[in-house]
Design goal:
CATH architecture of one domain: 3-Layer(aba) Sandwich
Number of strands: 35
Largest sheet: 7 strands, antiparallel
CATH class of one domain: Alpha Beta
Oligomer: single chain
Shape: globular
Number of helices: 22
Length: about 900
């Protein structure tokens, strides 16, 4: 009698099945098996916040497969991920199985493991538990809360601010951060200041530099030298003085290693060091967690990556310390293990930090078995975890005060040198303000020459430098995640989706890895802050997150938390029913005026109409067009300017990317009528000496150069020769499907990037990279398509015959010919010969999707259909 184990992904199922052997059947749920339908009324506040759940075809299929496997089974182990979402998936699977009466006589237990290794899985099976009701309640509360916020507030947004898209509870707050930072940048006015550097030499002739820090015996502030005149006066004073060493201060400081990764710090560091988006980081981490094949065995390389804990298991710490002692030496090993304290408020969700499952598997050892993204991220995780248990770095810092003989002019020279590198031997933490390419990154080693108090250094020169204050930087993915975490907004599993949703709704865009709000994002933020400020306030959102944590910790009842939110929220929404569009327009025009009508710097009125000259520009909101700029002299003056529209393609000219390494042909990036594309070589120029073709003669086809469109969302400024060559080489072989044993290809088609298995296509998600997509991801993308498409075999005339699910029932297809299955005939009852016969007897062309597909009117006339002549009206 076999036991059944349910996990989330097929890759995870395959790994665990190898560990457990024939006594277990391991199946995947493919993530959530059901969800709230995206329609009004799925959550009913007046009915105790009851929820209506709905399963899609894939979820139904997976639960049917689990129910079938449970026939004759003794136990069902729900082994989904060890967090709130994982607990929810297990709960959904159990509820759906119970509704099918598939759990009679079956013991249902929950198991979790923080790493996918044979030992961890076996240990989890030996210590099963019941489903955690508190975590399930926290999931229900959060899911209902987000649903009610979105489905209640979004219609208000659509009515009062046409052209807007949905409003999310946490995404709106993140958008507010981005928009307010942009407003700070726009309002910023640079201020001039000067610094002065002196070039000195010791009595022995060794040069060093120092900065002017005091004048007339008074410490200089940042703006005390505010212009060139003041700077030149200071230079003259400095050049006229003689100097002596007033003091030399030396001290040794220790720098401790950072803690191992949490979800947010992993996303931040991967963004800084690897240039990964949060979504790309989490997808790659998921692959490392679920396992890769090494030496004929599938092994998980890192622990679970959705965590806010910084502690590591005692056996992992012991293994890391042994590795440090054996490879780096005892000097790099502290006397006792380092302990890190988690800042997580919810102990039940504070899992172990992200670390390698086996420190003996070094990045070099696994490089041959993983993709480039996996290798780079694994190296980051491995080094950070090992460095966290290494000795502190020690730096010798020196500060030298240099004073004029009269004490009225003072310079200071500082330097530091690494006395002992400690953990810096292996790992240095990235910075949001990382230096530009070519600049030195090592700030720790700047050695000053030996000097003693009373010595008289010689002044060799004084150099003034002009500076201007800089505005606060735009948020990067790393700094925005860090800010959200500092404010207590969002949780480990939500950061990647928050950032992705903002981009998907085109509220923000990434430019040079920094977030820039689009006009539509600023309009939405101004509306929400103006009329729902309480619900996009940072402290309110953080307090609500704490209440949800209290639910998962068993300290609060989920329905009471929802009721408290709903009472006030529904009242706030009701209060906006009488709100006029004009009120919204006036408020947004006032708040966004500095952005929409920036000061030109020439003293002219930025709101003056450029067409009529007498009208005043202001924000308008049209019922169909959304927000736009219009003139106050309308309708006499019809000047308008779009606000919140889509961005242009970003390029107008042809840009050379380099030459093909084999053919030598030039590769270029070009604008076209359907967007940007890359091209290899040039079309052959027409021969001016060639005779003109005779009338009626068949035209000779001119060979066209190879071209490839840029995928939607790809930043044209980031396209390199390597990227272009990859696009031009599409479609490419991704790998062989593990079950179908057929090749999977990836390419770009009419509807965007895709993966293809035989005649079956599946579109890529927006964050998938068609050039680097791996086999595991391709299998997941194709899974849903395979559920609704069945391959019957080759048609006698060539090509594949398939069976598909349609809106009006199942049908068979060959090329562009389709035939519906007769009533009463199930999909499983149809074989290839029957399908071929059905297509020959009842096949018809596949209906088009263009305008006029339903017939009639102009489209029918174009197809040659007869349109009855209209009778002449009497009179």
């Amino acid at each position: 009698m076999m036991d059944v184990v349910v996990v989330e992904s097929p890759a995870k199922a395959k790994t665990i099945n190898n560990y457990l052997g024939r006594d277990y059947t391991v199946l995947a749920s493919y993530g959530h098996v059901r969800d709230l339908p995206a329609k009004d009324g799925s959550v009913r506040p007046d009915d105790g916040f009851a929820m209506d759940w709905e399963a899609d075809d894939r979820g139904d299929k997976q639960v049917r497969a689990i129910a079938q496997a449970l026939k004759g089974a003794k136990r069902l182990f729900l082994a989904t991920d060890p967090d709130r979402e994982g607990e929810a998936i297990s709960w959904h699977v159990k509820e759906m199985l119970a509704s099918r009466r598939a759990l009679a006589g079956v013991e249902v237990r929950r198991i979790t493991f923080n790493e996918i290794t044979k030992a961890a899985v076996k240990a989890a099976l030996a210590a099963p538990r019941d489903l955690d009701g508190d975590l399930i309640d926290a999931y229900l509360a959060r899911r209902a809360l987000d649903y009610l916020f979105g489905f209640t507030l979004s219609p208000v947004l659509w009515r009062k601010l046409p052209g807007s898209r949905s409003a999310g509870r946490v995404q709106s707050v993140a958008l507010r951060l981005i928009c307010e930072r942009e407003a700070e940048i726009e309002a910023f006015r640079p201020r001039e200041y000067w610094t002065i550097e002196g070039a000195f030499a010791t009595p022995g002739g060794t040069p060093f530099t120092a900065r002017l820090v005091s004048l007339d015996g008074r410490k200089l502030g940042q703006f005390d030298l505010g212009d060139e005149k003041a700077a030149k006066a200071a230079v003259s004073r400095a050049e006229a003085a003689a100097y002596r060493i007033a003091s030399v201060e030396k001290k040794r400081v220790r720098r401790n290693p950072p803690a191992p990764f949490t979800t947010s710090t992993l996303q931040q560091e991967a963004a800084r060091k690897l240039g990964f988006s949060a979504t790309r980081t989490m997808r790659t981490a998921q692959q490392l967690y679920e396992g890769v094949e090494i030496g004929g065995e599938t092994v998980g390389l890192i622990t679970y990556m959705r965590t806010d804990g910084v502690q590591m298991a005692a056996e992992a710490v012991s293994a890391i310390r042994s590795h440090i002692g054996a490879t780096a030496g005892k000097a790099y090993l502290p006397d006792s293990p380092r302990l890190y304290q988690s800042r997580a408020k919810n102990a039940q969700e504070a899992h172990e930090a992200v670390r390698p499952t086996d420190v003996a598997r070094t990045p070099e050892d696994v490089a041959h078995a993983v993709s480039d993204d996996q290798r780079r991220l694994y190296e980051l995780v491995w080094k950070r975890a090992v460095a966290s248990q290494m000795a502190s770095a020690e730096l010798d810092q020196t500060s030298v005060e240099i004073a004029s003989e009269d004490g009225k002019v003072g310079f200071r020279a500082t330097g530091s040198v690494i006395a002992f590198d400690g953990f810096l031997k292996l790992y240095r933490e990235g910075r949001d303000d990382a230096p530009a390419p070519g600049e030195a990154e090592d700030e720790d080693s700047h050695l000053l020459p030996s000097m003693a108090e009373g010595e008289r250094p010689g002044l060799k020169g004084v150099t003034p430098s002009q500076h201007f204050t800089q505005p606060p930087p735009r948020f990067s993915e790393a700094s925005l995640v860090k800010k959200l975490e500092e404010l207590g907004i969002g949780r480990p599993s939500t950061y990647a989706s928050i950032l992705q949703v903002l981009q998907d709704r085109q509220y923000v865009r990434l430019d040079a890895r920094r977030f820039i709000p689009e006009d539509r994002g600023r309009l939405v933020t101004a509306f929400l802050v103006g009329f729902f400020e309480h619900y996009v306030a940072y402290d309110f959102t953080a307090a609500l997150e704490e209440q949800l944590d209290d639910v998962s910790g068993g300290r609060a009842a989920w329905r009471e938390v929802l009721a408290g939110f709903w009472r006030e929220f529904v009242k706030a929404v009701e209060d906006t029913k009488e709100l006029r569009i004009a009120d919204v327009t006036d408020a947004l025009d006032r708040d966004l005026g500095p952005h929409l009508f920036p000061d030109k710097g020439d003293g002219s009125d930025p709101r003056a109409c450029p067409r009529c000259g007498t009208g005043r520009l202001g924000l308008r909101i049209g019922g169909n067009t959304g927000a736009f700029i219009g003139c106050s002299n309308y309708p006499e003056c019809r000047y308008t300017r779009n606000v919140g529209g889509d961005q242009a393609s970003g390029a107008e000219d042809i840009r050379s990317l380099g030459r093909h390494p084999e053919t030598g042909e030039e590769v270029t990036l070009r604008p076209g009528p359907y967007g940007l594309y890359v091209q290899l070589g040039e079309a052959p120029a027409p021969d001016p000496e060639a005779p003109k073709p005779k009338k009626g003669a068949k035209k000779v086809a001119v060979p066209k150069p190879k071209r490839a469109s840029l995928p939607k969302g790809m930043d044209p400024t980031s396209v390199t020769l390597e990227t272009a060559l990859g696009l031009l080489s599409l479609p490419r072989l991704v790998g062989i499907h593990p079950e179908k044993q057929e090749p999977i290809h990836a390419g770009i088609g009419q509807f965007g990037p895709y993966v293809k298995l035989g005649p079956i296509y599946a579109s890529l998600d927006k964050d998938d990279d068609v050039l680097s997509l791996g086999l595991n991801r391709a299998v997941v993308l194709l899974a849903k398509k395979l559920d609704s498409v069945k391959l019957l075999g080759p048609h006698p005339k060539g090509g594949e015959v398939t069976m598909r699910k349609g809106r009006f029932g199942p049908y068979v297809q060959h090329g562009t010919t389709v035939a519906n299955l007769p009533k009463g005939v199930a999909m499983d009852d149809m074989d290839l010969d029957q399908a071929v016969g059905l297509l020959a007897e009842k096949g018809k062309p596949l209906a088009g999707r263009g305008r006029g597909a339903k017939g009639g009117g102009k489209a029918a006339a174009k197809r040659g259909a007869k349109v009855p002549a209209r009778k002449k009206e009497a009179g």
